[in-house]
């Protein structure tokens, strides 16, 4: 009855129900109780921001929220202005402690969970970053229109969705604006337009006034997603292609790149890359400008050419999404398209088929995505770009390998001036630079969509095979490889662990200068150092030119290359069981687990632990968290995963587990692990793909844990965790990875075998019945001096069995 009174007088045609008449409910305390109180009222919830809702039982007492506590917000729509006014009038009477009316008692219960109710307004639609972006655009060219992305309120009613574009166009007509592109993706509740607004209209958006800023149809306005790649400055050199190469010997592609248009006739790529055009065609990208996609394809196929590795034995798919406009010198996202629409169509073309055509990459498991939004640093709420990758990874069973992004802005060095910097010893410069990078981590956040949870996010290490740094240049980290100067860092959504991995991304030199604000430094990619890969020749048109480059795109490409080897190993394992790779539904999850499985901080973590603040031993948790933001789980050692050895065996299991279930695995114990006093190592990696709530900052619908027989995370007495991320950082994402070492044999006395449990917990009532697929990798290793063939001993024993049973209560 109450809902009817608020909605009274509304037009019965839903096309006239204005979705912008949204109210913001600021919730006190756990939002689940509030949701339960309003479930029967019947309003349409547009979206919600749960403030750390899922973290209440996973954070330690010494683990404070760096960003401070924020309100939990929920948004509803009311179809008439009169309804909005009635709702606000009720709230005002409630806050004045007046008694409810005859039909208002239920609302008074709901209001008890709220600190405020207010209309959605221009301040909500336009954040300071968008204002700053418009200001920069107008300052650059005051007479040029500004392009923006406009998010509409996604409505459950298809009629409302169908009329959304018309309503937006009417708003833009008032200021002389134009819709350039319009995309709706129902599964992630996404409806957005790329618009062009004249300078006056853009100024109104910047000041949060005028027709566009105050339009009820619009949820938010943000900068146009933008990515560009500039060619390297070096002259390059040439290579001699492998004369023994036969295209017919290559197996079908299991990896694809969404990137620039590769130079497919380059001698290093010819016959190895299949280009699948969707939105970007060859005519839109001159051959002499095809740098980024060519480098990424080359690094995946050959690795760093200076390392002399063998090329992969599979084809590589490429769907170009970067154009090279004639009047510019770089490659960039086509400014006439919404990037998400291009990526969505590219993946559809590969995995499902587009416009009635069959899929062009049905066997693709890995998708390299080294393109990001330079205007979209991740801040708390998952971007729509990240939501799209998370949904497509589950829908199409693929693993996106995503670069964390490159941060090129300058930062203070801590030196008084250029003279002091130049006079310092290399060791002092290195230590000061490391501390300066750590001190400025607040401006080095991930570039979207690197925060996505179901993807493998990769940062860049200051490593390559280019030899000594030439005289006259400053190598900021000459002693060892840490993350390079430009690599973006975590954390991710709800402070989850990001990046997942770091890999060699080339050595970036230090460029410095004195400014009015002090001495500053920024990363410089000069082409002197870095990783060598195929490149176009803009002068002579050679088909064998190479060039050096650096960055997180390179490191992501190398992880994709390793991922192909992991998929090959999985395929070989399946073939031994008489199965095909395509029949393995969780092959992408298994690939993600195995790519992370060989990772560790190793010497990098030990050195950073000595250098990074806070310095006191009691504050190790904060220091460990800071290291995690840079290194994630560390640099992987793929050989430990794909190459067998007599003293090591890796077991792989996969299944799906539901809320309050625990899957029990028993691993046969080799005799040498029982009687020997030698070092033992157990590595466990669990990767899962939870359901996602696309409009909630809680985001994950379920969490999985690796637990012991008591349902705890203490694991085994006598084995200790090596230097690695804190468990609280691990539990917030979709991967758990632990490395344990020790010499105590007491843990290995259970005749039933080593217990490893996988336990599930739904984070929302909506997902209590939803099975969560996972892959679990476990490695047992003994010292190389132990004579027993542990691989033969365990593989000859019964396969690890899983038995569903009730979740162990903690």
What number of domains?
Answer: 4
Q: Would you tell me the overall average pLDDT?
A: 84
- Per DSSP, the total helix count is 22
Mind summarizing the main beta sheet? 7 strands, parallel
SS-based class: alpha+beta
Q: For the record, what is the CATH homologous superfamily label of the largest domain? A: Peptidase S8/S53 domain
Distance between the termini: 43 Å
Q: How much is the radius of gyration in Å?
A: 28 Å
Beta-strand residue fraction: 15-25%
Regarding CATH, which class of the largest domain?
Alpha Beta
What is the helix fraction of residues, given as a range? 25-40%
CATH level 3 topology of the largest domain:
Rossmann fold
CATH architectural category of the largest domain? 3-Layer(aba) Sandwich
User: How many strand units?
Assistant: 35
The backbone outline, from C-alpha atoms, is: globular
Q: How are the strands of the biggest sheet laid out side by side?
A: 12-13-11-16-17-19-20
Runs in which pLDDT lies below 50 for 5 or more consecutive residues are 1-20, 50-70, 795-810
